[in-house]
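Acetylserotonin O-methyltransferase
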Amino acid sequence: MGSMEDLDYPQLILQYNSGFLVSKVMFTACELGVFDLLLETGEAMSSDTIAARLGTSSTGMERLLDACVGLKLLAVELTQEGVFYRNTEISNIYLTKSSPKSQYHIIMYYSNSVYLCWHYLADAVREGRNQYERAFGISSNDPFGAMYRSEEEMVKFMAGQNSVWSICGRDVLAAFDLSTFTQIYDLGGGGGALAQECVSLYPNSRVTIYDLPNVVQVAKKQFIPPEECQIAFHSGDFFNDSIPEAELYILSKILHDWDDDKCRQLLAKIYNACKPGGGVLLVESLLNEDKSGPLETQLYSMNMLVQTEGLEAAGFGEIQVKRTGKLYDAVLGRK
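Structure:
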């Protein structure tokens, strides 16, 4: 039940009602380059100066900056000369493109793709399927068609996924001691940020990124330098093509894209390819068994029970679950 304060005045409801405004303010400030400009100049700036530098209206920019102050993404300084804005530390670290921990690319992916899909959430609930066709004119049977609709969009999506691993990757890979696994396949490894984290954390390992041919081509060209000798590539479709033998298979944010039957088929295929004593590491956002949270996971609709049962059905044993305290958790099953 809600508190008496909530029943007297629906603060929580009003907060939820305007939640999309919060996202759009951050999306827009990132897209226009507000945080990058303030980091580049290294000093507080007036709204008029920021507007002039970024080619926007003065009125619109001032309102955007004030909203960012309210969200603690910017700080404001009131002086005799006027009102000046500067980045907060969290914005310098996570919202500027040049930061090693930048979330800019995943934010832009949410702004340009996810935000549009969620416009059709009611249709998704009625029909029980994704809304890529309404949002992008692409078949709903091809969940990656929208993300990979052009090389430019593919690069953006892969950069966005890489940005997630810059803040979560080490945690999921360190959830279990994986040092005994030296031959690792990262299925659907995309831009390779998780593979890079893996060889950094476990220097004796060699990771092969198994992904679609066009994804591998972009990863080689844009994200993984040739001198990364511990990272190799395998082009193919792991649902339809063979999976080579390895000691450990990583499935990071893969299973939530597919229905239960397809997930079970993939896990069984991995089990058959896996060396005895090897295993599979699932990286997903896990829901509490009583469905009480966490909220971020409820929004992603991932159920831990489905994942562990799928591993057991495929033949894996000694299944362990580790919460990282961040968005993504780890599940390890052994053969």
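Residues 4-92 form a domain with the Arc Repressor Mutant, subunit A fold (CATH 1.10.10.10).
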